Amino acid sequence: MTRMRKKHIVSILHQTLCVLIGLSIVFPILYAFSLSFMEPREILVREIKLLPDALQFENYRIALRLTPLGRLMVNSLIISTLSSVSRVLIGSLAAFSFAFFEFRGKKFLFMLCMSTIMIPFDVVLISNYSTVASMRLTDTYLGMMIIFLVSVLNIFMIRQCFLSIAKELFEAGKIDGCSNFRIYAQILLPVSKPVLATVFITSFVSVWNTYLWPMLVTNTDTMRTVQVGIAMLRSSDGGTIHGPIMAASTLVLIPTVLVFVIFQKQIVGGMVSGAVKG
């Protein structure tokens, strides 16, 4: 067997493995989408039923009737978008200072920020709630997103991207008379679009899928988020109504898919440029 043939076989096996992994990830989503069109008698059967006998939208009507899903999606969209934009702006500004400036205590401050990653969210949950309550921010958009405005992991990710940029570019901008903010806004941000898009997408998805904190700091149903709204879908006897839950989950998935599609070009462009540089 020639070396070229071996490489061809390895390539086929690698691609087959990638396809199987992709299908295993996508299958639950496609199955939930199919369940959203099924009647209860089709869902609660012993054998696995992949496709409905006929398309019916009753589950979607029930989901929209039992919960103010439209309002909850607006709430989640506002919180997720503003939090993601804040993470990109604050994270990039902090990363800019850590990557390009020298000041006293820089390493200690950076390590102090990174050490906060080791603190579990549950440990500070009560203190965060007490702080938000004392500021009278419960049942408000700011109260729901205040703990999501900054992420140390995002700062670290953007800093690593900035460190990969030649410092001569920064020095050339200073020689040309550019201010620090102009270098940041007109030089660093444009060449860092892939990592900024990645930060935005991961932040959006994580905040969109958050359940515990929005439920804790809200008191009225109209101020809650979509994840809390899905948990509100219960039958009158307290049981689970699978069809409407799957329908609501399908609707909730749409914004995150759209965000990925919108920023897909930047992510792919970053992968391509990285491959070319390598």
Mean pLDDT, rounded to whole units?
85
Rough shape?
Answer: globular
Helix content estimate: over 70%
Rg: 24 Å
Question: What is the number of beta strands?
Answer: 0
The percentage of residues in β strands lies in under 5%
Overall CATH class of the domain at 67-232: Mainly Alpha
Say which CATH homologous superfamily of the domain at 67-232 is assigned: MetI-like
Describe this structure in words.
- It contains 14 helices and no strands.
- It has a domain at 67-232: MetI-like fold, CATH 1.10.3720.10.
- It has helices at residues 3-35, 40-43, 58-66, 69-100, 106-115, 125-134, 141-145, 152-163, 167-175, 180-191, 193-208, 212-217, 226-231, 242-277.
- Helices cover 72% and strands 0% of the residues.
- Helix 1 (3-35) packs antiparallel against helix 14 (242-277), helix 4 (69-100) packs antiparallel against helix 11 and helix 11 (193-208) packs antiparallel against helix 14.
- It has 278 residues and is mostly helical.
In short:
By secondary structure, this protein is an all-alpha fold. The chain has helices spanning 3-35, 40-43, 58-66, 69-100, 106-115, 125-134, 141-145, 152-163, 167-175, 180-191, 193-208, 212-217, 226-231, 242-277.
List the helices and strands and how they pair.
Blueprint: H1 3-35, H2 40-43, H3 58-66, H4 69-100, H5 106-115, H6 125-134, H7 141-145, H8 152-163, H9 167-175, H10 180-191, H11 193-208, H12 212-217, H13 226-231, H14 242-277
Q: Top keywords for this entry?
A:
278 residues, MetI-like fold
